[in-house]
Amino acid sequence: MSLPKTLAEDVARNLVMVARLIDDDPDQAYAYSRIALRLASRVAAVREAAGFAAYATQKYAEALAEFRASRRMTGSVELWPVMADCERGLGRPERAMAMAGEPEVQKLDKAGQVEMRLVAAGARRDMGQIDAAIVTLQGPELASSAVHSWTPRLRYAYADALLEAGREDEAREWFGKALEADKDGATDASDRLAELDGVEFVDALGDDESTVATADAGGPVTAGQDAGERDADLRYADDADDTDAHEHDDDQDDEDQDDDADGSAKG
Fold it and tell me: Which of 100, 210, 226, 267 could pair with 200 as two cysteines, CB 3.0-4.6 Å apart?
């Protein structure tokens, strides 16, 4: 669908802001996506961007609706894995598993098929089927020594599943392999290895306090979680820290005001 030039420019500007902000400020990215959606709801790229913005803010039902709309417009199966992950986010892992067995998966490229495998393994874990999740992640892509964009996440998910199953030595090995492949820091494999090895770090800026390296504040990482859930857990932890900090500042402001009042009264 073509848009008038001025309208197309307005839509494009909003989509650019969505892309810029979705990782660092997903709420603001979501706001821009809603503007683009109001301007051009019949454009597939707008529906897709709105879906990812909703997904990043854990609005999974809304994200799924937008992804479905985009797929109807384009006929593409590219969004199939993230649609399945939305089902997981809605607490329906059995639907995600059903989608993993649909013919659409065979139409995906290699990256999409690996992503679908990550989602399926995550759904298995959601249902408490940890051994099945481990088997789901096994395959030629995991065994290959070649490194692709999805290699660190696949190895990381496998290591995390092994750890949940109590196979710590194997988990340590695969976290190491994930770290070797992770040149861009897409995972926190180094932190997970440090945690397993009991490594402590000293905060050089603090009062010589040591903190044990931890994987994340939100608990175990499931396969496919990088598409939204794991980052959201970290954001919740950060929000909680920010809230505590603001409350401390407010208390300090109250004390300062009381001191000023006392000083005035004495004067």
Answer: 210
